[in-house]
Write a structure and sequence with these properties.
- It contains 5 helices and no strands.
- The chain has 2 domains: 8-43; 47-89, no CATH class.
- It is mostly helical and 89 residues long.
- It has helices spanning 9-22, 26-40, 47-66, 69-72, 78-88.
């Protein structure tokens, strides 16, 4: 699929220079930039990423469902425990 993207002259010059420095085409730079943007927002790039994300979600759901109720309760810190002991006296 082809789409047109407009750059100002300064930005385009810097992208061309970056491409020369990295021995990459403008298309390769764009592919990398868009892949990074999608990853930043948690959007799978390809089928492999989508399956990996789906497996992580299923595992987290399974672990949450099998977690004992005691583990779901917040634990007291040592400072809270000391305060509670001080009140009981």
């Amino acid at each position: 699929m082809r789409k047109l993207i407009e750059f100002d002259d300064d930005t385009f010059g810097k992208l061309k220079q970056l491409g020369r420095d990295r021995m990459a085409t403008l298309q390769e730079l764009a592919d990398e930039a868009f892949a990074d943007l999608l990853k930043k927002h948690g959007i799978p790039i390809d089928l492999k990423d989508a399956l990996r994300k789906s497996a992580r979600l299923q595992e987290a759901t399974r672990l949450q469902a099998t977690r004992p109720q005691d583990a779901a309760k917040p634990r007291t810190t040592a400072a809270n425990a000391a305060r509670k002991r001080g009140r009981k006296r």
